[in-house]
Write a structure and sequence with these properties.
Layout: H1 12-26, H2 33-40, H3 45-57, E1 61-63, E2 71-73, H4 75-79
Antiparallel strand pairs: 1-2
Amino acid sequence: MRESKEGDPLTEAQEKMFLYIRRRVRSGMPPTVREIIHHFGMSSTNAARQQMMAIEKKGYIERAHGIARGTRITNRGQRL
């Protein structure tokens, strides 16, 4: 499997997660990983983190690692 890189389009699952994250960021309360897994019915935090890392590598979000609500939308993400 090829590694994600900036400029790659989001997969359908990544786009759904990104739109949820963007909605939460715009409301003033970025979601935590636990809130994401609960919203999408995921069984592990690792699955959510992997998706978020791919979205970040593609340039749609930036995350402040170690901060629970440290996600922000990039300029690329604003255009989607």
